[in-house]
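Dear colleagues,

As part of the handover before I leave the project, I'm documenting each prediction I ran so the next person doesn't have to rerun anything. This entry is a single chain, and its sequence is reproduced below.
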Amino acid sequence: MLCADRINRMPGQKRLSSVLNGHVVARTKRNSRCESGLLRLNKKYARQVWGRLPAMLFDSLVELTRMYGLSVAAGHLQLLDGRWYITHSGLLRVGYRNRCAGIRAALQARFSNTVTNRWVFKATVYKKPGSKGFVGYGDADPSNVSPLVRGAEMRIAETRAVNRALRKAYGVGLCSVEELGYLSTPAASPGGKGTAPRSNGNGSHNGQPRLRDRLCLLIRQYNLDPTLVKLYAADFCGTHTLKDAGRDLVESFIAHLSSSAKEDLDGLVCKLNSYSQPTEVKP
């Protein structure tokens, strides 16, 4: 009977060990090259979209790239109000990289209401076959979604539930964009038929999208910072805040913002970044 030492010294065993070690080293080097390439691309596209980033945001982008393999070009990350947010596609990418075994979403009829169009979903993410799973809940109703997606509250609730479950399962501390509600506008009250429209330019009386919704759409389309856009808009309209501006001024600003984003996005980002710098108080 051969002893263990003699078996380990057999030529075939040595060749097998060498081959296995070679595959591990090659795979490690290949992953390292892919990670370095993705990091270079993320830095490049981040500068193109958001301009020069503060050191803290830049360092967190590097860390997010290394930890989760997220891609700026693929839309896995968004920068809003000086904070990183992950998107639904980014979370699905995290699950794919970690070989997620499955996701199950179920409507919670007990907490949902078809009359008010309120929906609640429960999502469970299974990291391995037969595992207990990580649970997340998501809700949506006309009061916490944008009018741009009005009527799709059920799908949004499901997406929010899946996002929360994925974030729990893989330890993603970033909030997802789809869970945000601060860009949304409150729903009109059913009994407000006789209410006079506001005169500040947010309303719409001819079936066209509200100016606020058009502005939000531009912000999301070009990944602009909402806070800086509001400051720029107020300066453009010559008012203290954007809500004090008239409809004509807001329309002019939206047209100007749209043309600037199409013709020179880098220049627009630089212009917006100038509003993030503190102004000196004159004596």
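Residues 38-86 form one domain. The CA atoms of residues 200 and 246 lie 5 Å apart.

All the best with the project,
I.
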